[in-house]
Amino acid sequence: MHEALTVSAVASYLSELLEVHPLFGDLWIEGELSEFKRHSASGHCYFNLKDAHALLRGVMWRSDAARLAAMPKSGDHVLAHGRLAFYVPRGDLQIYVDRFVPAGAGLLNARFEELKARLEREGLFAAERKRPLPPRPRHLLLVTAPGGAALQDMLTILARRCPLVTVTVVPCLVQGERAPDSIVAALYQAYTLSGDLIILARGGGSLEDLWAFNDEAVARAIFASPVPLISGVGHETDTTIADFVADVRAPTPSAAAELAVPALAELHEQLHYTRLRLQRLVDQDLKHRRDAVQSAHALVERHAPRRRLARDRQQLDDLARRVLRAAHMATERRRLALQGLHGQLEALSPLATLARGYAVVRNARSGAVLTSPHEAPPATALRLTLRDGEVAATVDR
């Protein structure tokens, strides 16, 4: 016989077992609410969750109840999310609920909203981390089912719009239990292929068909992409977690292909405008250089040695003419002055007086000019200077 256990020991063991078991710490339970009450004082909610064969007591704390969009009531068929616990004092098994979802919305929708809210809080959907698509990708990677219609549609559109782009298909499963692991593996394989743009795509289907693209591991693999990624999953009305994480969401795989590459007509138009712009730039540059050469030529012409020599020669000729003219005028002035002096000399010259019949009388012995008869007593020898020569004479009285 085994050793007997106390009621407290058994109850505590059950409580600990429920706390450590991974299944009971995070689960959804579907059932009908009964005896639903919210205490006005505490704000906590107490209720039963039951189906045709069993009943489970439940509690929702005030903080969780405050986040409910609408308060449920007895008789509602719901999905309840929470954790199982064993309430030792009363020996009750109960669920602590943090969320109610109407059963009609489905468990998948509830899980979708839960994962979406958690990843959004972590920043996986942040707009500031979204990258722009390359305008002209050279290597495009398609992560999708290898035999699906979605792939054929994308290849047709890519060949029509931009046949020059290199396309590599990275195959994966897009539906079923193994699809999330297959998509994650394909994405990480694509990251090693040196592409500059990735499309993750599959055709339309039900929520269950597209569920692989709502997987957390797939979302985190998309978030890890080293290059921009387009999601093209389902139809226009379908939205997956992959769409929120991707850099760009396309409503369909075909639309994703349209977004990924420019059409040939667009490339031709861009090339045309680029050519016109380059021509304008070349013309402007040539005009600028031509103007610069002309300005330099004019500057050289203004400062050319031959032009400077011509200017200096002109200046020298002008200066020579001015010097000659000044010398001529100075000479003329001196000639006229000399003529005046000559006239004065002529007028004052003794020779002029002599020409009129006068003579200069000198003492023949002393040569002194006599100005009075008393200076020449009788027998004084004289020398008379006439206009044309000299005459000797003697005073006789």
UniProtKB/TrEMBL annotation:
List the EC numbers from the record: 3.1.11.6
Provide the alphabetized UniProt keywords. Cytoplasm, Exonuclease, Hydrolase, Nuclease
Q: Which residues form a coiled coil?
A: none
Pfam families given in the database record:
Exonuc_VII_L, tRNA_anti_2
Keyword check for rRNA-binding, yes or no: no
Q: Name one GO molecular function term.
A: exodeoxyribonuclease VII activity
Q: How does it assemble?
A: Heterooligomer composed of large and small subunits.
List the HAMAP family hit by this protein, alphabetically: Exonuc_7_L
Fetch the PANTHER family from UniProt.
EXODEOXYRIBONUCLEASE 7 LARGE SUBUNIT (PTHR30008)
Q: What does this protein do, in the record's words?
A: Bidirectionally degrades single-stranded DNA into large acid-insoluble oligonucleotides, which are then degraded further into small acid-soluble oligonucleotides.
Q: What is the name attached to this protein's record?
A: Exodeoxyribonuclease 7 large subunit
